[in-house]
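Progress against Task 2.4 (sequence-to-structure conversion) is shown through the following example record, which the project officer requested during the mid-term review.
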Amino acid sequence: MNEITFDELKLWSKDSYVLIDIRDEGLAAYGMIPGAVHFPIDEFMEKAESGSLPFEKTKKMVLYCQIGRKSREIDEDLLEGRECYSLEGGYIGYVRSWVSSENDREERQKRAEESIRKKFHKQLLTPFAKACRDYQLIQDGDRIAVCISGGKDSMLMAKLFQELQRHRKVDFSLTFLVMDPGYNAENRALIESNAKTLGIPITIFESNIFDAVDTVEKSPCYLCARMRRGYLYSKAKELGCNKIALGHHYDDVIETILMGMLHGAQIQTMMPKLHSTNFEGMELIRPMYLIRESDIIAWRDYNELHFLQCACHFTDTCTTCHEDGTTSSKRLETKKLIAELKKTNPFVETNIFNSMENVNLSTVLAYKKDGIKHSFLDEY
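Structure tokens generated for the chain above:
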């Protein structure tokens, strides 16, 4: 299929074509090109083969996937003789087209920081500070490695740390740590550009994790996440840090709780802080613990910022990697389940979260402590 660049597409009349997002639902939920219609590739091909695509034949069809590979490989013979194009670079190419110029970086940084202090203060800065205070995440003298993946969550976390440090209520230092596990040049350039735009002085180090998991068939995302954690701990300790900060938010927490029950037959949560078992003296903290994902997205979109969701070089379908080994489809399924339950119970999210603070050991059959299982029969 012929390719078209985003710059070329912008020269066309909007009435002359239809832009079709053929990615899976999880990727499309993270962000779509404005004006696009979501039509997952399996459904699209089914309609194409039956000759029942619901688009005007007089309009050109411009298809895009995540990186431009799947859309490019679609057989044009199945498309009813329509004029069709593949968007070069896919959604990631579109995101990269938003790389800021040197001229507007200062203004965009100012706008992003001001929005945290004013428009989104209650939604972002207040719960960030509350989590740090209530869970005692930061102490005087801490040297914190703020781990940045290049996505919306970690980039915002870096800005919130800067804002918290500006108030100087606690004396701590920050190192904004980016691990390059094998990004291609364009993805790395986007991360660097976004960091410059937001005024985040990142420290980049390299690893070969993508190459190491490239040929792994079973749970490559799980292995990748575990390896990244180890590399981050090691580098942070080398730099003199005693804590690493990850950008997991409130929605990550409640989804993980529910997935553990439904798919792992266990009741456990994503803790706001953990001692490292392999790196003595190191601690993991999650200061975004009380921040809603919808508020992160609102801040991102208000400031017209564009981040990478996943920069894996070996997959076209990978969404956010999770340390618990769950797939994007399971997490999306859980998101939908919570949204459905919320229609009849507006407090369902809060209830799931609060359930982890209201465990009555007298009413559970068994529990584990330090790896040892205890039964209710032990003290019956």
